[in-house]
Amino acid sequence: MAYDFDVFVIGGGSGGVRFARMAAGHGAKVGVAEERFWGGTCVNIGCVPKKLLVMAAEYGAAAADSAGFGWDVPAGTHDWPRLIAAKNKEIDRLNGAYKRLMATCTSYEARATFLDAHTLDVGGQRVTAERIVIATGGRPVRPTFPGAEHVIVSDDAFYLPELPKRIAVLGGGYIAVEFAGIFSGLGAKVDLVIRQQLPLRGFDEDIREGLAEAMETQGITIHRGKTVASIEPIGDAKRVHLADGTMIDADLVFSALGRHAYTQGLGLDAAGVETNGFGAVTVNAESQTSASNIYAIGDVTDRLNLTPVAIAEGHSLADRLYGAGPRKWDLDRVATAVFSSPPIGTVGLTEAEAAKGGPTDIYLTKFTPMRHTLSGRTRKTIMKLVVDQATQKVVGAHMLGEDAAEILQGLSIAINAGATKADFDRTVGIHPTAAEEFVTMRTRARVVG
């Protein structure tokens, strides 16, 4: 059978674009459909604009801290509309760059849905392909409690016309803590409502405790072990009713209660593509779905929901299907960051995870970074190494503090290469830096497992 395309990609985000470009470079005839904006969540309403907002908040803190270094900087006010306008300009530039990357493919600015395993409806046009790749990503979960229509989610936050003075943030995941830090750093009074006693479930316990302490120190009120019962409009404001009877008055309620795979309405049943109980596409180790000619990559599979992972999956799949063979990526120990205030960098096993495998040595340090010995800001840096006692391999590294993400990128290479604690110990540090602490931790804090 003759098809319109060798392969068609549904979704023009980071993973879909990388796959399309690589497949086209290998000689495949590629079609791509994107219904919203090229570059997907990360470029438009995710990690890139969020990092710009984090930087904006950091400038305010730096201005205040400069007094300790002899600067006399008058207290200023933040212009939220000007920040959003500058952010929009940069995102428009990146969006255009992603469009230009599609020059070697046939692109459609339309929604694509399955008619059968080889046929799609693309904006009302019938299109066929030998293979199809689903790369539609995820979307924020919108809550269903009474009054949920009065909340916004992360998609909406990047386009607020003004920054409200009082903001209630619902959720304890990375999006919640990041935006809590952004809003607080730009001058809003922030209440954070979390189901557990600490934010960031799944992260290392010492880092979770350190972040909660840091957030409270900077004025964020954390309501621990609480859930929302309802939201009531009070004039232009909102009253958040918690299940225990606590009430929070806010000008804005920001919900960050998770994300789900964006598969609704794709017509997956017509193509024989199976999903799990949460709507994510089920795939095997080679990103193949239950329909042999259909593949899925990135957040739509709800495996490891990180932009670089989606890019790696797309690149590898294109090489496997149309190139000389897949490029090898190590996805077992992927470093990640949370751009909270202060930020977090982490790679490998947490203390609790490592302890399940047997005796584990823990090295831990907590100190005031050099900058804040003069600034006077109450802020601690936490660094931690998790070491398998039998092999002495460093199986996890975790950091809370300035430049954590930049530092952990380098450590992830060492850990993925199988470096031991002795390898760390014989490495000469760069002085004076925070990073050198990772190679000067000599005293074991405890043994677990």
Helix content: 25-40%
How much beta, percentage-wise? 15-25%
CATH C-level class of the largest domain = Alpha Beta
Largest sheet, in brief, is: 7 strands, mixed
**Structural class of the secondary elements?**
alpha/beta
Task: Count the beta strands.
Answer: 22
CATH topology-level fold name of the largest domain: FAD/NAD(P)-binding domain
Number of distinct helices: 13
Total domains, how many? 3
Mean pLDDT: 97
Going by CATH, the architecture of the largest domain would be: 3-Layer(bba) Sandwich
Rg: 24 Å
Q: What's the shape?
A: globular
CATH H-level name of the largest domain... which superfamily? FAD/NAD(P)-binding domain
The low-pLDDT segments are none
N- and C-termini, Cα separation? 59 Å
Protein model, in words:
This protein has helices at residues 14-25, 40-45, 47-65, 80-101, 154-157, 174-185, 205-217, 268-271, 307-322, 351-355, 370-375, 404-416, 421-425; strands spanning 5-10, 30-33, 106-108, 112-116, 119-122, 125-134, 138-140, 166-170, 189-193, 221-223, 228-234, 237-242, 247-250, 252-255, 259-261, 294-296, 336-338, 344-348, 360-367, 381-388, 394-400, 446-448. It has 449 residues and is an alpha/beta fold. The protein has 3 domains: 5-140 and 260-322, FAD/NAD(P)-binding domain (3-Layer(bba) Sandwich); 148-257, FAD/NAD(P)-binding domain; 342-448, FAD/NAD-linked reductase, C-terminal dimerisation domain (Enolase-like, domain 1, 2-Layer Sandwich). Helix 3 (47-65) packs antiparallel against helix 4 (80-101) and helix 3 (47-65) crosses helix 6 (174-185).
